């Protein structure tokens, strides 16, 4: 049995390396470049407008919004961010900068900029092709975009089903087991609380939230996500400001090693341009999920008058996740000077330990508490967001509203299992399923790119151009 598990783990690792290998990363970033060019860089040019929409009354307060949908646009974005802002923002950034050098952060930024177009496009399609389920709630996402948008029906049915299957698997893996495992380990290591107690507490909390469905998830996410982001960002800013004199040097390392044949720390870790590019893009995509097709499921539930309005709002998730939170983590690490340090065993310090070392360089032991609390909040919110993705994907496969209640019970039970079990194989398995979601989604984006462009042109004509004309008139 042990030999079989070892062999299975090796095969799974090889498959995972392929799924998240150069070909997939080129497709993910390439699709973003393609859409950005086709959209005439409007996702980037209209980023300011999009940020304004996020915090408008129409977006935040449901009483100001009578459009079709289940939750406010702001709650939809927060649900998507709940699933997106996770351990990758703390662990992923540190790992990328350790394995790929400081320059990996630069390539995370580049992938995020083009990821704006990808996230925008998939969210537009999700709202445009969404449907009402038997309970009158909105259902959407790549599976519905593929099913309703593809002219070759058998191909659309196959790709939509594949996406939904991978999404259900990923919800239990990357959205549940691996997250609660991170929470339980962090709480045990920092606060010495037994993992089984953590498992029970988180399972009950998640179960209570899931009872209320998407409206409950949206409400909780709208409160938890901004608080956790501000809490962690404040901690990062303290580190950065405390090491302000070293920040220019840190930024210099990031920029120089992004293109140099070997990085500034090459003597220690042997970084190259290729490794900076690879790990930066991979961790960037993994963190903001642009192109994976997960966030559009939440976008489809939003109360909105036009697919592009929610597209603009939801694409800011990539901005907040990578260009803000990941950047703060990267700057905290770069300015603290801990990158490239070795542990007692002579190994490079990486992952959460590297981020904790950066915080500890200024705050001492209190730094580990802040990072641990950040990990708990980030992972908990990820569990909530992914529970909705998995539920809607299962509902698509079974065509049964009852399936959602069965799913919620099983999902909550898996939380306890994940807290008390070592899940090394699950990491690779769930990581693979997460990556495989991208294949049908990217095909959908490329095939239906004309729909995205037409909807964007329509939104420009009906909303953006009149708004800009009114602003010019007021100035005169």
UniProtKB/TrEMBL annotation:
It comes from the Bacteria. It is a multi-pass membrane protein. GO terms for molecular function: amino acid:sodium symporter activity. The keyword Ribonucleoprotein does not apply. GO terms for cellular component: plasma membrane. Belongs to the alanine or glycine:cation symporter (AGCS) (TC 2.A.25) family. This is Sodium:alanine symporter family protein. It comes from Christensenella massiliensis.
């Amino acid at each position: 049995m042990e030999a079989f598990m070892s062999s299975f783990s090796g095969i799974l690792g090889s498959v995972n390396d392929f799924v998240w290998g150069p070909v997939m990363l080129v497709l993910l970033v390439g699709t973003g470049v393609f859409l950005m060019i086709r959209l005439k860089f409007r996702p980037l040019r209209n980023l300011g407008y999009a940020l304004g929409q996020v915090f408008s009354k129409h977006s935040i307060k449901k009483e100001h919004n009578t459009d079709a949908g289940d939750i406010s646009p702001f709650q939809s974005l927060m649900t998507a961010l709940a699933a997106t802002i996770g351990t990758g923002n703390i662990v992923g950034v540190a790992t990328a900068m350790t394995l790929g050098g400081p320059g990996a952060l630069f390539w995370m930024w580049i992938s995020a900029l083009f990821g704006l177009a990808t996230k925008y496009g998939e969210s537009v399609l999700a709202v445009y092709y969404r449907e009402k389920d038997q309970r009158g709630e909105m259902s959407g996402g790549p599976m519905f975009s593929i099913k309703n948008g593809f002219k070759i029906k058998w191909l659309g049915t196959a790709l939509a089903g594949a996406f939904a299957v991978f999404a259900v698997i990923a919800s239990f893996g990357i959205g549940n087991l691996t997250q609660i495992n991170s929470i339980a380990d962090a709480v045990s290591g920092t606060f010495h609380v037994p993992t089984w107690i953590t498992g029970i507490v988180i399972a009950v909390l998640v179960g209570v939230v899931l009872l209320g469905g998407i409206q409950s998830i949206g409400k909780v996410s709208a409160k938890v996500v901004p608080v956790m982001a501000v809490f962690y960002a404040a901690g990062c800013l303290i580190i950065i400001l405390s090491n302000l004199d070293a920040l220019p040097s840190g930024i210099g390392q990031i920029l120089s090693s992004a293109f140099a044949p070997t990085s500034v720390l090459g003597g220690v870790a042997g970084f190259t341009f290729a490794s900076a590019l690879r790990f930066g893009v991979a961790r960037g995509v993994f963190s903001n999920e642009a192109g994976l097709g997960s966030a559009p499921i939440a976008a489809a539930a939003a109360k909105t008058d036009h697919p592009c309005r929610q597209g603009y709002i939801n694409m800011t998730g990539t901005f907040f996740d990578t260009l803000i939170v990941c950047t703060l983590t990267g700057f905290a690490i770069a300015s603290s000077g801990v990158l490239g340090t070795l542990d007692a065993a002579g190994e490079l310090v990486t992952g959460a330990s590297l981020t904790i070392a950066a915080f500890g360089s200024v705050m001492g032991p209190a730094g580990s508490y802040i990072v641990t609390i950040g990990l708990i909040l980030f992972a908990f919110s990820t569990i909530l967001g992914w529970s909705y993705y998995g539920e809607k994907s299962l509902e698509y496969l079974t065509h049964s509203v009852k399936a959602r209640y069965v799913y919620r019970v099983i999902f909550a039970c898996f939380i306890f299992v994940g807290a008390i079990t070592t899940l090394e194989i699950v990491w690779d398995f769930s990581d693979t399923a997460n990556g495989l979601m991208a294949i049908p989604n990217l095909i959908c984006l490329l095939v239906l790119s004309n729909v995205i462009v037409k909807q964007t042109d329509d939104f420009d004509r009906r909303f953006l151009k009149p708004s800009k004309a009114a602003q010019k008139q007021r100035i005169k």
